Amino acid sequence: MDINLGKLFTNRAFLSPDLEACVGKDYRYTFGEMNQRINRFASFLTETGIRPGERIAILAKNNEQVLTALFGAAKTGIITAVLNFRLAPPELTYILNDCKARLLIYDDAFCDTTSALKSGTPVEMFVSIGGTTDDRSFENILMDMDDAEQEPTGSGSDPAVLMYTSGTTGKPKGAVLTHDNCFWAAVGLVHSLDWGYKYRYLSVAPLFHIGGLAPIFANVHVGCSMIFMPDFDPAAAWEILEKERINFTMTVPAMLQYMAMVPGAEKRDLSQLRHLICGGAPVPRPLITAYGQKNIAVYQVYGATEYSGAITFWTYDMGMEKANSAGKVVFHGSVRITDPISGKACALGEVGEIWLAGPQVFKGYWQNPEASQKALVDGWYRTGDLGTLDEEGFVRVVDRLKDMIISGGENIYPAEIESVLMGHPEISDAAVVGKPDDLWGEVPVAFVVKNKESVLNEAEIIEICRSNLAGFKCVKAVHFVDAVPRNTLGKVLKRSLRDQV
């Protein structure tokens, strides 16, 4: 049976019309009410003449309007590009031109950014969510439209969503996610974790990241209420967790670190909270332990946009001795460790590139056959991550393939060195990159952020490496910095650091 994501919402509304679906600052909608809004938006798209297969774009924070637009577009066979609102106008201009979006829906908070997009892009119509600008109001549009159910257009392997990569290694690429991709990713989530009917989910991870968007499809699939937090605030997060009786949420490590600093959080009634999912970057073991002492379980997720979301999960049930791994592959997924040169499978425990298969593998990059051909091999997606697989099926992510340093013929994984440095109590952050060297080809150098009271010098940091690592892995130079550059998911911008050395 071919799946249409819009029909998925229709089915949920049929089964659970009175179940609370979306909660925000000034609204509470049931699944039945949300489906009416979605149908009205679908009618609007039909009236505008945007045809199946064409694109619309959304520039908005976490709110129900994103769902209304996305599922409405899915019902009409239109593809939705969910844009990163932290990008600058030139970056957004590139994306809008790349996908040739005809309609842009935007939060009024981004009206200045949107003004810069009104020339030099193919966008014909601009719709304001807040309704305080001169553009058409999202709410006014819905009021004027018919909410009758339409026969859905498009399904299965047809594109539904465009998620643009961060572009840390060049221009961003649009990962094409089909209706089937998003559906099977949802199935994988609800069958891999404690993710049940009538649970309440806090949507705080940005929806323009796959870690924020993929849970939305799972929530609709299984029947979870979604409480939206447009702007992350660590103190407010604890308040919402208690007030809305939240069962689970998706976070990144930085969020949990900030929340851990909020005084008095342990006094709140969090008896409904089942677990916090955390990903986007490795979750430090001390952070898992700190939350465990508060009787809050932190589950690790390793994912990728091109895999429509989660790849693996580590949960408490898998044992704390495996907490330094990424866990086991998601339900209905397949993983293998492959020699990146020969393409042959690696032995257990041997480092190689992580390859993925299953119905979650994306269709390819938008109008970029060359990049698609490099990423997809016989149905397998090449992640570009290096890792290992043990006899129990646990995946360990070692590093990015492009970040690996080859020094004197030896492979050096920066993540291993970074782990040693980050284990020192006077170092709050660290990143390691390769520096060109006439003798060795490359040598590792470190960028280190010290704690305010620290008096560590370069020689002492090099000695920390020597005490814990083989000689060829030791950093040869140290740059002290105020902050390590990271993208919105907390991933280190290694290219920026390599440019400096």
Plain-language structure description:
The model has no long low-confidence stretch (mean pLDDT 93). The chain contains 15 helices and 27 strands. Strand 23 and strand 24 (410-412) form a beta hairpin. The protein folds into 2 domains: 5-389, ANL, N-terminal domain (Rossmann fold), CATH 3.40.50; 404-500, ANL, C-terminal domain (GMP Synthetase, Chain A, domain 3). With 501 residues, it is α/β, with parallel strands linked by helices. Strands 2-1-11-10-12-13-14-15-16 form a 9-stranded mixed β-sheet.
Please outline what is shown here:
This protein is an alpha/beta fold and 501 residues long. It folds into 2 domains: 385 residues, ANL, N-terminal domain (Rossmann fold, 3-Layer(aba) Sandwich), CATH 3.40.50.12780; 97 residues, ANL, C-terminal domain (GMP Synthetase, Chain A, domain 3), CATH 3.30.300.
Using brief descriptors, characterize the structure shown.
9-stranded mixed sheet, GMP Synthetase, Chain A, domain 3, Rossmann fold, 8-stranded mixed sheet, 30% helix, 2 domains, 501 residues, globular, 15 helices, alpha/beta
